[in-house]
């Protein structure tokens, strides 16, 4: 997961002559490690579908958008459907939105995208977005979104609510996850086979960087943690926290105190889920 500012992304946005293989209305190309498809709009705006590592993003550029770095909630709708509130990263006249299934699935079939920002509606022609997404995936050598979302997580035996993902996008590794109403808890293993604890929500949008947080397990005292945040997840390596890891193995709940708020999660079955995670990763290449 790289730390990248929209200033770099804005410099990446390009408008050129469409190649024969480009989807109608889109220009597909590579800039460094990023593959993207740009669609210039009649009003001077640009919509971009970008693949950065395993992460897909929709970038909306307009001269009226803010320059300063921030996060903001906006509303998006496709072809007149009810609006969906999403958190977006903003900087350098660009809004960035993570392509989750509630965004990516309707976008693939849509003709028009409407975005409401501070009471103003912006409209984007997104015809052939499915072809643009697929072209970006081919360029980036990553699975196309329908393939990425086709794998159904498997229930972890003996740990109700926990799900096992056998192929984490962009890696050779597995993960386990338990969703809660306020926060989703995901576990992966580092290259040293140490636990990494992840708090996330599809609608979060946070600038990448290091963060400080604290974690309460059941009714215990808060434990201070240092980690990293990227878009909609906050990651914390537990390699130097053996006591915390041991306590989590038998825990039922956790409470995160993150820079943007406090959230509660249910993790009953954590120890069984860790066992399933280690078994899934056994013998797999690392990295």
Strand order of the largest sheet: 10-11-12-13-14-17-16-15-18-19
**Overall pLDDT metric:** 88
Number of domains: 2
The helical percent reads 10-25%
CATH class category name of the largest domain: Mainly Beta
CATH topology of the largest domain: Immunoglobulin-like
Helices and strands: which structural class?
alpha+beta
Number of strands: 19
**C-alpha geometry:** globular
How far apart lie the N and C ends?
Answer: 12 Å
Major sheet details: 10 strands, antiparallel
CATH superfamily of the largest domain: Invasion associated locus B (IalB) protein
The ordered string of helix (H) and strand (E) elements is HEEEEEEEHEEHHEEEEEEEEHEEH
Q: In words, what does this structure look like?
A:
The protein folds into two domains: 6-147, Invasion associated locus B (IalB) protein (Immunoglobulin-like, Sandwich); 151-281, Sandwich (Immunoglobulin-like). A hairpin with a 6-residue loop joins β10 and β11. The strands form two sheets. It has a ten-stranded antiparallel sheet. Strands 1-2-3-4-7-6-5-8-9 form a nine-stranded antiparallel sheet, with helices on both faces. It has six helices and 19 strands. The chain is 18% helix and 42% strand. Residues 1-20 have low confidence and may be disordered. With 287 residues, it is an alpha+beta fold.
